[in-house]
Amino acid sequence: MQINMNKKAINRLKVILAEHSKTNKWLAEKLNKNETTISRWCTNEVQPSLETLIEISELLNIDVKELINSTLD
To answer: DSSP state, 11?
Structure first.
């Protein structure tokens, strides 16, 4: 069975940012990225690199695993 990755929400970035009362703009400034890039990550249109996910987890003081949806569901 092939998983359609375009329809699957791989990251939880939008939820995590909301839980921490942070905005896309805040993250864009911290990572020196364009807000459009952050928005595309939040909608799971594209995915940040593993290195970027680690950097985000450090900024938010969370385990990087919290940023990724389980593949076992």
So the answer is: B
**Single-letter amino acid, residue 52:** T
Comparing CA positions, the residue from 53, 73, 52 lying closest to residue 63 is: 53
pLDDT in tens, 4-21: 455 689 999 999 999 999
Q: 39 CB contacts (<8 Å, ≥6 apart)? A: 24
Tokens 């690199």 -> residue: 49
- Is residue 40 within 8 A of residue 46, CB to CB? The reply is yes
- Is residue 13 classed exposed, middle or buried when 0-12, 13-18 and 19+ CB atoms within 10 A define those classes? buried
60 vs 36: CA distance, rounded Å: 20
Amino acid at the residue 50:
L
Entry pTM? 0.86
Residues paired with residue 68 on neighbouring β-strands, in sequence order:
11
